[in-house]
Amino acid sequence: MSIEEFNDAIKNKLFGDYELKEDVDHYGNSNSWIVLHDKRDMEVVAKAVKSFKGRCVVATGYLNEMDGTHTVIYHFDINGMIMNAQINTNDKTVISITPILRSADWAERELREMYDVEPVGHPTKDRLFLDYSIAKGVLNEYISLSKIQMGVSDTDVLWSQVNKGVKV
Amino acid sequence: MSEKIEIGPFHTELEESVYFKLEVDEHRMVEKVEIINGFIHRGMESLVTKKNFMQNLILTERVCSLCSNNHPMTYAMAVEKISGITIPLRAEALRVVADEVKRVASDMFNLSMLTHIAHTHELMKDTMNTREHMQDLKEVIWGNRMDMSSNLLTGTKYDLDDRKVKIILDTLDTVEPKIRDLKERYENDEELKTKTVGVGVLPLEDALEIGVTGPVARGSGINNDVRVMAPYGLYAYRPELQPNVTLSLRKEGDVHARAMARFGDILEAVRIIRDVVADMPEGDTYVDKRPHIPAGEAVVRTEAPRGELIYYLKTDGSQKPVRMRWKVPTFTNWEALKVMILGDKVDNVTMILNSIDPCISCTDR
Asked: With an 8 Å Cβ cutoff, are A129 and B364 in contact?
């Protein structure tokens, strides 16, 4: 599997522009990057990964504080080659690739609860790690320890329970 | 008539906190499984962006105890990649030694837990006693039985002299025959086989689709060992060190196969340690210059005892990461539990869970 083969598999199917570059580390391992400019293109990439019998290793999300957009990077493995596919979203949504690559399931669910980026079309709505009382997107902002100890909640559920037991 | 059964989040047969909600039929076969995670979520990916690069070396070692060497090593590799640093060959060798020693100890702990849950106590006792030699070795060489603190951002903090190499080789001489004996017993022990063969089966197709890694993958016949598929460190420079994965591959996909895959990994780790210390490269153990970490991003991965560990690091030229993300093997192996548990007996649930060698601390972060 080479980056040229991968490029051949996607180049006529993508909706938008893209940049593809190969990065080979000093151990000789290929670590490629593709930056997509149309959200729909992540499905095209996922289908290509699937056709090469690859898998989604994980996805990284983060908030760009300058403009409020989110960057999402899917890290795929194709027979030992890492393919990092990056997309920016300004409406906190991406198109879910879990229906194509089941291995993306947890990665996308975590994206939803940690960054409040919704993978549209994801088959599971259940929370992955955080309780439903905790607001989505907890990693979008810095939350102090004192607030964490109150449950990182949008509500005062903890203190209301405490106050119930406090006899004034 | 179905019955609802809940296991966890705290239970004597669970190594760490996880919560199973099961529905079982009149024969106590699991019809529906729901797994709830997050009890050990510490927000570590947020925390690392508040610490500088040196502090994060300490912090990543505390993501988990059993694979505590892999986290700082993989993190250090990501920093080194962004900094354009090539560490000395001797440091690469020392990293492999530390890593493989941890692999033996970690895998043997999992096997001990398996026999504990299977109530084959003699096997459990002997496995734990054998592992104790590796724990003692860690204490002698690195000064700690769990967190070895062997990595620096440009190499390793420790070195080996002839005296220490002899201690390592003497320990391996002691444990290797014991491990081979244990492997034979695990392979043939009727009581253990009754409880593990055909239990918690993960078929090859599901394993491929879910993307499992490590001994869980090898137990279902998949070789995606990073040391072989994308070799790094000394595994890249000296391909003869790469593990012979065929010794670990099994096709049955059950609890027993995953245990035997670990024995393959352990014996190959012993062989790798011997080979490395027999031909230690000369030179420094680290680059004697504080690394300049420019803006950049890197994705690196290693093979932890439980499988593939991947780190993503983004920097902006400051002293702290902009974003750091890691994915541990359990993160993907976890989803396979639903395949393994469904249709099996409820009595086997904790054993099946143990068979993926779950690291909840790593997974929840």
From this structure: yes
